[in-house]
């Protein structure tokens, strides 16, 4: 049950795109105004850099997951601690995403349907795919959902062309300045940093030595989509509406009116987009259950799927409201998780692994 | 494992059966097509809703016509918009549904008082759409407009949108207003509707869209321009796509249909003097030619074009002047042009723009090209004056 | 064995016992030995009979066979006495034997006494084998003083002519379809692939029916693992009856609880040949015109035979259309219900007002309304299927019209529902493969409920569950959605669309 590297590409593409059209655009516009697209482009570069580090780390430990190689690098207890903190972080992220997702669905599609129903159906599907086919099934699923999502997004971009006021993107740079642009870029960069799950997936990739191209491409395309989305949103709504809209891409799609018949397409886009959020959540469930099993030394990881799913479901029901959850990104993810888990620790992994593996070579040589 | 699976399936099934929290049959919805907002005598906001009655829609569709209206009009007055919505709901047997609201009419009295307070809910409710047309009702109440019975469409709210689209901008008006509100170098403007006075032939009252209301920074209506001037305003603003224009050349009138209209503005800051050069372009088709000029001959057409351009430029300049002098509001977005071209100086200008705008020296050049002379070149001999 | 068959005329009583007895004969497992104590006596008797050799004395043979074929009215015993008092016994089934040829043999033996001529036929020494061969239509010839029987294959029986396959008609391409006869079917395939590497492996299954079936493959093209897997699964079959290829399909398919067919079946020899050439395995069962093809992918169900004969651009367009229709046939009713009851802002105003107007005064909620009409439609279709051809189509069409029209007129059902149901029906007829259309027909109903109770989110979740099932489904190790998920190199060649053959190299062994 190994996946090929291009399956990994589709998997990452799908789960990154879901974020770049959903959560990142509006906060970036709020910070960087009409230069949000520059921010997003920069964040793409940051994302590429960070992913490069992940891949270098993974390449050195192709047969191990993060939980395992952390132990082999730092010894049993420190390694376990690092592994546990990653798993905890992933638990919190997946609960958070599940929560925002259900709130979003409730806000756009329903009014009175209880949140737990929406979340429960999602969790059920996540557990099912993990039981039935594990990461292989997730990869195949994203091979169907990814292209569909890309096509859907490109179509909406095309249909929106007639609503654009190109002059709204001007003046470039003057209004925001370098600091705001850079600050804005951290929002999306931190989301792109989710490619760190690759560190849990390498043992399941068939040709794990040649990950560079697909993984980097899987960061490039979503950031390109994010850039185009932000340009479109700014040209359609300007910066002041664009930054106040909570989900500007979907508002933009709703604004499309083509031939008086194709209108309110947001529900259709959402229909496909649900699939990509599902890929994201299912992958999180996979690495969480797999990681927990490894951490606790349980041989049969499948048993953990149900337990982990139940925990994520319970966690997602705890927080109070949508604002509190969006704050998670602002208050926890960007200031703590991004520098520590996405940038800091992987670099340390790389350095330690370089030192450790170089040692025996030196000894052998001498 | 199998048993857990079966349990899950059972749970899912019960979920589906128990769950129909948001289900609502399509004929249990009252589709809200148009809203009108007015100020009532005691200073409260009065909200009027035009609600679709599908049964009536059907019978009129079958040709019974006239007898039954496809809609009802309900009003309520109160202080907050949402409260008003609730009051409207209280008067209806079906659940109101805002997802298909096409237009909002604001009575002139309310518009002059300011509409800041009522704008939020148009964008906040996720059911409503941004693509809504917004009008000021010239010399009238929005309520009266909703009561009009148009022969083309059972909903006067939609008729107004169609009419606006056909001769001006269409249904992006709400977005455009919101877009302009947030920017310093432009002031919002809204199309105006009025109820045309009946004449002998017309049985029903008819909606007329021919003017534009101009707002200041605080979303209070300060004035209006109508007819040709309103089209010129939109042209300079850059949102007009095509128009009909008729000019008196001195030897007779010429009518053109101008399409692919463009504008470009160059700006210049010289010390304290602000200068803007507006250039308007378009290509046209001759619709009517009451002069003796043979437009198929270049040597005759080019002077005509020049003459037309000069006349048009003078008119546009006059319109701009009027806005600068009379209302002092930059509905054209000249300020935004400064913003784009001189972003750093603009930071000093932006807060004083309302003072500065009337003093901006604006020169206008127009370049209309006659591309198509219509079916004939010269006038058919014998029509008009014999030379 | 003899005692097992002894009560053949009363199958209900002896059926079970007979099964067990035959199990003994074939399986020598521990399972068999357990029951052996119970039926020990019978077993001994049977075993002895099975071991029984053909006796030199014709009388003995006659008696033994008479015992076996007791109460079998169709078995003919024809003792002949030659002029030198030596005896010949012919045992055969009249209806399965070519009487002309038989008479030739008889005359040869009787008149020219050319008994050596019989040497051309296979000689069999075991009685049990004789019995089996005779039942398959062979003619057993016993000669006095010889401890074996000649078995002449004079089989000839009435069979259906080769017709156009009615369920898989094609505008362009061969009109031949498989018949119920194994040999004819094999010849139809062999005629298309005249190469020694086309192998027909003969097997037999079903202890009571003794049905022959053939596993066909092209040695050069097929993956050895696939063959092994097929062999392994065929070995594991234990059944006493095999009446149709469908029986076999159920025994060897991957997931028996899946709604989707994991083994393709076809009546067309050209489809079988093309599949064999692509490295697939075919299983042809005697008595069934439906040949099994495996492994099956989802896309194979959306392809018609003539796709490969028509011009490729048209075919690609049609395949796309089929895919869209397939999706529609599954989703149309549920999406309609979800849109009208949950998300009316999706529908353009004018359209929605007319839907709303037509729903005025309808007593049912939209979900129930759709469900009713869909059920009615399925009922009509099922009824029409079994009726004689001439009446069938008329009844179903007229029935649908009358029910739809009358229900709308009476105000029970709104007109859009009738249109939706009709549209779904048309879409579901576009499947080239009948068995792939079945899951789509069925899945419509759970999706309809999901859409009716949770709107488009419910539909999306439902679709997600279906996709998850499809991506995890495998047919003999081949992912069901290949080459789309996982993406294979044949993606553009022959799945969604078909490329011109000039640009597609012929499939090679993978």
Automatic annotation (TrEMBL), chain A:
For this protein, the record's InterPro entries field holds: Spore_GerAB
Could you name the domain of life of the organism this protein comes from? Bacteria
Which UniProt keyword terms apply here?
Answer: Germination, Membrane, Transmembrane, Transmembrane helix, Transport
Q: Give any Gene Ontology cellular component.
A: membrane
Pfam families per record: Spore_permease
The biological process GO terms on file are: spore germination
Q: Where in the cell is it found?
A: Membrane
Q: How does it sit in the membrane?
A: Multi-pass membrane protein
- Transmembrane residue ranges: 7-25, 37-57, 77-101, 113-132, 144-161, 181-204, 216-247, 267-287, 303-321, 333-355
UniProt similarity note: Belongs to the amino acid-polyamine-organocation (APC) superfamily. Spore germination protein (SGP) (TC 2.A.3.9) family.
This chain belongs to the protein called Endospore germination permease
List the source organism: Paenibacillus sacheonensis
TrEMBL record, chain B:
Organism annotation: Paenibacillus sacheonensis
Q: List keywords of the entry alphabetically.
A: Germination, Lipoprotein, Membrane, Palmitate, Signal
Q: Among its keywords, does the record have Signal?
A: yes
Cellular location of this protein?
Answer: Membrane
Per the database record, which ranges form the Spore germination GerAC-like C-terminal domain? 212-374
Cited InterPro entries? GerAC_N, Spore_GerAC-like, Spore_GerAC-like_C, Spore_GerAC_C_sf
Q: How does this chain sit within the bilayer? A: Lipid-anchor
**Family membership:** Belongs to the GerABKC lipoprotein family.
Q: What PANTHER family does the annotation carry?
A: SPORE GERMINATION PROTEIN B3
Q: Name the GO terms of the biological process aspect.
A: spore germination
Q: What name appears for this protein in its UniProt entry? A: Ger(X)C family spore germination protein
Q: Where is the signal peptide?
A: none
Entry GO terms, CC: membrane
Residues forming the Spore germination protein N-terminal domain are 22-194
Which Pfam families does the entry mention? Spore_GerAC, Spore_GerAC_N
């Amino acid at each position: 049950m190994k996946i090929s590297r291009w399956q990994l590409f589709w998997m990452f593409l799908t789960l990154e795109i879901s974020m770049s059209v959903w959560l990142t655009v509006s906060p970036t516009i709020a910070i960087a105004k009409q230069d949000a697209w520059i921010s997003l482009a920069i964040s793409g570069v940051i994302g590429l850099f960070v992913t490069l580090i992940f891949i270098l780390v993974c390449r050195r430990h192709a047969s191990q997951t993060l939980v395992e190689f952390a132990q082999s690098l730092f010894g049993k207890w420190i390694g376990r601690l690092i592994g546990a903190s990653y798993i905890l972080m992933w638990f919190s992220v997946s609960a958070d995403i599940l929560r925002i997702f259900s709130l979003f669905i409730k806000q756009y599609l329903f009014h009175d349907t209880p949140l737990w129903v929406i979340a429960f159906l999602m969790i059920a599907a996540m557990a099912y795919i993990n039981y039935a086919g594990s990461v292989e099934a997730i990869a195949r699923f994203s091979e169907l959902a990814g292209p569909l999502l890309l096509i859907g997004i490109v179509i909406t971009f095309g249909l929106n062309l007639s609503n654009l006021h190109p002059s709204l993107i001007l003046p470039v740079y003057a209004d925001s300045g370098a600091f705001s642009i850079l600050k804005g870029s951290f929002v999306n960069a931190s989301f792109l940093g989710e490619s760190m799950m690759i560190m849990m997936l390498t043992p399941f990739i068939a040709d794990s030595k040649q990950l560079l191209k697909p993984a980097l491409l899987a960061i490039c395309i979503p950031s390109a989509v994010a850039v185009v989305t932000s340009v479109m949103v700014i040209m359609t709504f300007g910066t002041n509406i664009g930054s106040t809209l909570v989900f500007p891409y979907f508002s933009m799609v709703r604004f499309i009116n083509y031939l008086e018949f194709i209108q309110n397409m947001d529900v259709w886009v959402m229909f496909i987009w649900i699939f990509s959020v599902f890929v994201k959540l299912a992958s999180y469930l996979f690495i969480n259950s797999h990681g927990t099993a490894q951490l606790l030394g349980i041989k049969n990881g499948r048993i953990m799927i149900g337990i982990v799913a139940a925990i994520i479901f319970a966690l997602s029901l705890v927080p109070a409201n949508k604002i509190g959850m969006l704050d998670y990104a602002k208050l926890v993810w960007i200031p703590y998780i991004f520098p520590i888990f996405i940038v800091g620790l992987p670099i340390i992994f790389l350095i330690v692994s370089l030192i450790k593996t170089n040692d025996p070579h030196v000894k052998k040589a001498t | 494992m199998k048993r857990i699976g079966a349990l899950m399936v059972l749970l899912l099934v019960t979920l589906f059966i128990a769950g129909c929290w948001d289900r609502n049959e399509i004929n249990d919805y009252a589709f809200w097509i148009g809203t009108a907002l007015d100020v009532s005598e005691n200073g409260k906001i009065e909200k009027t809703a035009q609600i679709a009655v599908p049964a009536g829609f059907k019978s009129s569709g079958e040709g019974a016509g006239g007898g039954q209206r496809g809609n009802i009009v309900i009003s309520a007055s109160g202080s907050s918009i949402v409260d008003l919505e609730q009051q409207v709901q209280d008067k209806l047997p079906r659940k109101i549904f805002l997802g298909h609201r096409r237009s909002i009419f604001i009575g002139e009295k309310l518009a002059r008082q300011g509409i800041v307070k009522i704008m939020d809910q148009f964008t906040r409710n996720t059911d409503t759409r941004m693509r809504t047309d917004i009008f000021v009702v010239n010399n009238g109440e929005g309520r009266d407009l909703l009561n009009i019975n148009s022969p083309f469409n059972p909903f006067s709210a939609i008729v107004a949108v169609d009419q606006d689209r056909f001769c001006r901008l269409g249904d992006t008006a709400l977005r455009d207003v919101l877009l302009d509100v947030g920017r310093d170098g432009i002031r919002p403007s809204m199309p105006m509707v009025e109820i045309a006075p009946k004449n002998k032939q017309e049985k029903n009252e008819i909606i007329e869209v021919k003017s534009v209301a101009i707002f200041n920074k605080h979303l209070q209506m300060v004035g209006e321009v109508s007819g040709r001037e309103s089209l010129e305003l939109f042209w300079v603003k850059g949102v007009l796509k095509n128009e009909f224009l008729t000019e008196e050349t001195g030897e007779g009138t010429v009518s053109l249909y101008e399409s692919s209209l463009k504008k470009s503005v160059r700006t210049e800051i010289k010390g304290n003097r602000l200068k803007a050069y507006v250039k308007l372009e378009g290509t046209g088709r001759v619709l009517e030619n009451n002069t003796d000029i043979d437009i198929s001959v270049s040597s005759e057409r080019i002077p005509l074009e020049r003459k037309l351009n000069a006349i048009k430029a003078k008119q546009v300049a006059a319109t701009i002047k009027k806005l600068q002098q009379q209302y002092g509001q930059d509905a054209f977005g000249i300020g935004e042009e400064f913003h784009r071209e001189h972003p750093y100086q603009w930071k000093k200008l932006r807060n004083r723009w309302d003072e500065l705008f009337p003093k901006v020296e604006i020169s206008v050049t127009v370049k209309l090209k006659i591309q198509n002379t219509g079916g004939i070149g010269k006038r058919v001999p014998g029509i008009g004056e014999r030379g | 064995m003899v005692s097992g068959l002894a009560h053949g005329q009363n199958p209900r009583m002896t059926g079970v016992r007979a099964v067990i007895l035959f199990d003994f004969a074939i399986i020598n497992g521990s399972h068999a030995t357990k029951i052996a104590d119970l039926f020990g006596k019978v077993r001994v008797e049977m075993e002895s009979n099975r071991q029984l050799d053909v006796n030199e004395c014709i009388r003995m043979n006659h008696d033994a066979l008479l015992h076996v074929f007791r109460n079998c009215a169709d078995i003919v015993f024809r003792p002949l006495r030659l002029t030198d008092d030596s005896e010949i016994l012919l045992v055969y089934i009249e209806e399965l034997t070519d009487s002309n040829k038989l008479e030739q043999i008889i005359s040869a033996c009787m008149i020219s006494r050319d008994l050596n001529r019989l040497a051309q036929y296979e000689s069999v020494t075991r009685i049990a084998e004789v019995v089996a061969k005779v039942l398959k239509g062979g003619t057993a010839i016993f000669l006095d003083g010889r401890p074996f029987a000649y078995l002449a294959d004079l089989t000839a029986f009435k069979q259906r002519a080769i017709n156009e396959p009615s369920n898989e008609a094609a505008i362009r391409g061969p009109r031949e379809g498989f018949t119920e006869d194994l040999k004819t079917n094999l010849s139809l395939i062999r005629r298309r692939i005249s190469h020694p590497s086309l192998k027909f492996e003969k097997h037999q299954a079903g202890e009571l029916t003794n049905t022959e079936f053939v596993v066909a493959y092209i040695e050069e093209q097929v993956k050895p693992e696939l063959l092994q897997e097929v062999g392994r699964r065929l070995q594991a079959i234990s059944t006493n009856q095999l009446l149709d290829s469908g029986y076999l399909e159920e025994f060897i398919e991957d997931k028996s609880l899946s709604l989707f067919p994991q083994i393709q079946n076809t009546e067309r020899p050209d489809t079988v040949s093309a599949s064999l050439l692509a490295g697939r395995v075919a299983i042809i069962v005697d008595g069934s015109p439906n040949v099994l093809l495996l492994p099956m992918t989802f896309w194979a169900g959306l392809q018609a035979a003539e796709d490969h004969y028509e011009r490729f651009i048209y075919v690609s367009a049609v395949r796309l259309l089929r895919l869209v229709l397939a999706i529609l046939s599954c989703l149309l009713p549920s999406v309609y219900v979800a849109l009208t009851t949950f998300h009316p802002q999706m529908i353009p105003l004018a359209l929605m007002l007319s839907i709303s107007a037509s729903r005025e005064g309808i007593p049912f909620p939209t979900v129930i309304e759709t469900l009713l009409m869909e059920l009615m439609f399925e009922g009509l279709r099922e009824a029409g299927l079994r009726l004689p051809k001439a009446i069938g189509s008329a009844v179903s069409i007229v029935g649908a019209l009358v029910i739809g029209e009358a229900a709308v007129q009476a105000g029970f059902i709104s007109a859009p529902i009738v249109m939706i149901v009709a549209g779904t029906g048309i879409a579901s007829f576009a499947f080239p493969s009948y068995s792939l259309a079945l899951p789509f027909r069925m899945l419509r109903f759970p999706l309809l409920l999901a859409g009716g109770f949770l709107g488009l989110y419910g539909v999306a979740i439902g679709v997600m569950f279906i996709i998850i099932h499809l991506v995890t489904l495998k047919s003999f190790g081949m992912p069901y959605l290949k080459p789309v998920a996982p993406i294979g190199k044949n993606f553009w060649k022959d799945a969604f669309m078909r490329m011109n053959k000039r640009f597609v190299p012929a499939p090679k062994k993978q």
